[in-house]
Amino acid sequence: xxNDQNRSFGVFKPVGHLVISLPDAAAASRAETALATxxxxxxxxxxxxxxxxxxxxxxxxxTASPIAAIGQEMNLILAHRELARRGYHWLVVAxxxxxxxxxxxxxxxxxxxxxxxxxxxxxxxELIEHADDTPQxxxxxxxxxxxxxxxxxxxxxxx
Length: 159
Description:
Number of strands: 7
Oligomer: single chain
Low-confidence stretches: 1-5, 7-11, 140-144
Order of helices and strands: EEEHEHHEHEEH
Helix content: 25-40%
């Protein structure tokens, strides 16, 4: 995951990929198996355990440039840290285009994915919406990532 081409200002930013969070190893396995039916390249899916993600996130936080806080990269890794602390596992999946990204997210959601963020060059788009999501409000380095919960914190969604 530490590949320099997947980093921006010292933090993980895999442009052209989806970062998908799943509640446990079994859900990650089911989603990974289902994704194989989409005709993805053989090396399109990388899998990370909760501990692997925590290790990477702690390294990112330690080396992040202050500029990383301007965009949402730092807010995302803090939200990912909260999920990883709760045992979530991860799939990082290359997507050729927006249509394929949507198919990947839909497939992952059907197998329990909580989040699927599609990393573009300038925009990071959440592709999994929840029926109980509140309207999105301003995100900032001070507020963090808007989890679209009443408190605005990711921890509330995963309780």
